[in-house]
Amino acid sequence: MAHYLKYYIMILLILPTIVGILLGGHWMWLGFIILFIVVVGGDALLSDDTSTPGYKYTWILELPLHLAFPMISILLVSLAWSSGSGSSDLMGIGVWLGGLFDHDLIQARNGSVWVDHLGAVIGTGFLVAGYGTNAGHELSHRLKDRTARSESRWLLSASCNADFTIEHVFGHHSRVGTDDDPATARRGENVYSFFFRSTIMGHISAWRLELGRLRKKGQSPWLVHNQMLTGYAMSLCWVGIFYAAAGSFGVMLFLGQALLAKFLFETVNYMEHYGLSRRPDMPVMPEHSWNTNRRMSSMVLFSLTRHSSHHEKPKIPYWVLDPYTSAPQMPFGYLTTFFLCLVPPLWYQVMEPRLKEWDSKYATVG
User: Fold this and answer.
1) What transmembrane ranges does the database entry give (predicted)?
2) CA 347, CA 306: separation in Å to the nearest integer?
3) Given 253, 288, 325, 333, which is the most exposed site by the fewest CB atoms within 10 A?
4) DSSP letter at 186?
5) Contact 157/163 with Cβ under 8 angstroms?
6) What is the distance between the alpha carbons of residues 151 and 149, in angstroms, rounded to a whole number?
7) In whole angstroms, what is the distance from residue 203 CA to residue 225 CA?
């Protein structure tokens, strides 16, 4: 049963974030602090997970993916409520929960200062990326499941990432490792310049792909058939909720967490393919992604860590992915590697010997 329940850890991590945001004050940092300790500490202390159990009850593994949208929605509504001031009480949340637990949540919220709200934004951004975007990523590959694709798009709307389900599935996976892939980081490219290049070029690519799809179907690009336009509308729904809660300050908090979530997502792209190359005529192989089998990262990210296997077989569900211990390996788990990326000189120093080893094994001429 442990092999099933390990994928529910992210739900346990989102709960203290919601509670901390509602309690106000310095409690608003609670979620991020717990997330950092659990994920970084877990990766450091636990052994690698290279197990490949045969799962009988796969619905248990599907459930946390479909719980993602309601959980992320509760998190975002909590953040929106926390952005209010005075007697404002979005949806009556403060009065209802305050009466339920005999605690004046509105008074506690009104005593929060900017550094407290910063903690809430950071905690929310990390969970929108780690749970929302990641579950959305898994669901985006269910091309024949319209419900899953819709859930995916709503999850990605929380980070204003309308292009993801188009560019990632139909662009990145076919072009990974080539010069045409915006989501493959080049050698010597730092994460900050990559963020802007990947974001802009990925968005342009998504528009091209979507317009091409609509053209083939003979549909207008300016109607509800356009998934880019409806994706923007989904994000505007969130903007509307935050504006209703606290006006421009609420919108600022939403955009702050969305920007952080988007930066986290693009940094993960950066980590997963940095410096690796592939000729366009070559099949996508395990060596075209950086892999890691760090246990805690694998559990909270639905085995996204087995990225070499995911790119080799993108249509299979996350619980069937192979660990590929012989594939190129990241230096650390995902969250630790993320922080390493933020300091480019250290990143280059750590990755240079790994790239030299990759060249000696896999580099091709032409």
Assistant:
1) 7-23, 29-47, 59-81, 229-255, 332-351
2) 21
3) 325
4) P
5) no
6) 5
7) 18
